[in-house]
TrEMBL record:
Keywords assigned by UniProt, alphabetized: Membrane, Transmembrane, Transmembrane helix
SUPFAM superfamilies membership: Acid phosphatase/Vanadium-dependent haloperoxidase
Residues covered by the Phosphatidic acid phosphatase type 2/haloperoxidase domain: 61-169
InterPro entries linked to this entry: PAP2/HPO, PAP2/HPO_sf
Organism: Candidatus Azambacteria bacterium GW2011_GWA2_42_9
Protein name (database record): Bacitracin transport permease protein BCRC
Pfam families: PAP2
Top-level taxon: Bacteria
Transmembrane segments: 36-55, 62-84, 104-123, 130-148, 154-172
Length: 179
């Protein structure tokens, strides 16, 4: 990455990270949204899978989400991290570290996972898709605020997740046309 982009990324990181360390309540919320909110989002996904207007396409929605998430988080993100390992902010700089995570920072696995989930849901139900996109954005900002990711990590993870879901959905639609 260019030095200008990296400097801008670090400045934007500090803009969010400097919000932490000033209030125990704010820090608690930042850690909750960075580390634990994803579990609630996963439970919400399964709840709406059975309760929302997906009832005719439950298996298709579930498979689209599952394949999108696996492709984005466990395949593409890990391949990128194998070739390029960017140290996490708390490993490279003095930060207000609220959460901890191991391995490489770029791209964000959390963002790849939850943006893939949101995009896949969006293809089947726009309203619920926006709910999940909002949750993914909140988690991404919280992970920056907590000191475990740079903004570009989140943006790259979001792009990987959304493109993975688009690819899987496109293949699903194409396969339906052949059957």
């Amino acid at each position: 990455m260019e030095k200008f982009e990296m400097a801008y990324d670090i400045k934007l990181f500090y803009l969010f990270n400097n919000l932490s360390g000033k209030s125990e309540v704010f820090d608690w919320f930042a850690v909750f949204f960075a580390d634990y909110f994803g579990y609630f989002v996963a439970v919400l996904f399964f709840a709406i899978l059975f309760l929302a207007p997906f009832y005719r396409d439950r298996i298709k929605v579930f498979l689209t989400v599952a394949i999108s998430v696996v492709l984005s988080r466990l395949v593409i993100t890990e391949i990128i991290r194998f070739f390029y390992c960017r140290p996490r902010p708390f490993m490279a700089y003095t930060v207000n570290q609220l959460a901890e995570d191991a391995n490489c920072s770029f791209p964000s696995g959390h963002a790849a996972f939850f943006f893939a989930l949101a995009m896949a849901i969006y293809f089947y139900n726009k309203k619920w898709g926006w709910v999940f996109f909002t949750a993914a954005v909140v988690m991404g900002i919280a992970r920056i605020t907590s000191g475990v990711h740079y903004p570009l990590d989140i943006l790259a993870g979001a792009a990987i997740g959304m493109l993975s879901a688009y690819f899987v959905f496109y293949l699903t639609k194409r396969y339906e046309n052949f059957c």
